[in-house]
Amino acid sequence: MCSETVHLPIVKTAVWPDEAATQGFAMMLASRPALRNAFIELRGDLGAGKTTLVRHLLRALGVQGRIKSPTYAVVESYELPGLAVWHFDFYRLQDPQEWEDAGFRDIFASPGLKLAEWPDKAAGHLPLADLVVQLAMLDDTARQVTLTAQTPNGLALIHQYDSYPPLMYKGQRPISLENTTTSANGASA
Ligand SMILES: Nc1ncnc2c1ncn2[C@@H]1O[C@H](COP(=O)(O)OP(=O)(O)O)[C@@H](O)[C@H]1O
Ligand SMILES: [Mg+2]
Questions:
Q1: Given 101, 152, 174, 179, which residue has the most CB atoms within 10 angstroms?
Q2: How many Å lie between the centroid of ligand 1 and the Cα of residue 53?
Q3: Residue 54 alpha carbon, nearest atom of ligand 1
Q4: Residue 161: which pLDDT band, with cuts at 50, 70 and 90?
Q5: From ligand 1's centre to the CA of 106, what distance in Å?
Q6: Of the residues 43, 52, 179, which should be mutated to test ligand 1's pocket, given the most ligand atoms within 8 Å of the CB?
Q7: What is the pLDDT at residue 100?
Q8: Which domains are delineated in the chain?
Q9: What is the chain's mean pLDDT, rounded?
């Protein structure tokens, strides 16, 4: 077979009809080895589902207990076996000095998973994201999704994620984020 050249970025679109579909994507991401050292930007208006996607992803990775939105603290971090995760919400980032003082430069230089809501508020500081997830509200529960892989690692995250929805997720109720523990394989405890 001849070798293929992939030209980045690669853009894929999908419609997630309900939160179970969002969770399905999160579970797919959680299973990807490329996630172990990745930077993912989450874009979209307030209420689009950025934090919800991150919560489903963290649950799928094995985070237990309450998952706070980092809206006030700017960052929440998680130590999983063999994986450090940082969840940023840059909405309230004010002053460029805050970036240096808070040690964010060091975090982005460290291995692990970095997830960032409102990346535009930290523009100029952030490295190129491996993957950009853009969410737009279609109705109460449906989301138009645009996935942009900007690096080979980002491409590994969405490789073979081609068509959505697989029917198994349609109409299935999402596992509760608050009351249920979800193991790495997605089974509910
Ligand atoms: N398909 C979906 N994907 C993500 N969230 C959804 C979906 N359908 C409904 N929701 C709801 O929309 C809200 C999204 O809020 P949130 O994740 O805080 O948004 P953001 O972080 O983008 O401001 C949550 O209440 C979530 O339960
Ligand atoms: Mg949010």
A1: 174
A2: 8
A3: 17
A4: confident
A5: 30
A6: 52
A7: 86
A8: 10-164 (3.40.50.300)
A9: 87
Instruction: Report every protein residue that has its C-beta within 5 angstroms of ion ligand 2.
Output: 50-51, 117
Ligand 1 pocket list (CB less than 6 A): 16, 18-19, 21-22, 44, 46-52, 117, 141, 143
What pTM was computed for the model? 0.87
Q: Pairing state of beta strands 83-89 and 113-117? A: parallel
The answer to whether residue 94 scores a pLDDT higher than 50 is yes
103: left (phi over 0), alpha (psi -120 to 50) or beta: left
Ligand having the closest approach to the CA of 71 = 2
Residue 95: pLDDT over 90: no
Give the bridge partners for 85, in sequence order.
Answer: 78, 113
Beta carbons of 52 and 144 less than 8 angstroms apart: no
User: What is the average pLDDT across 98-118?
Assistant: 94
pLDDT of residue 172: 53
> HSE (CB half, 13 Å, CA atoms) of 10?
19
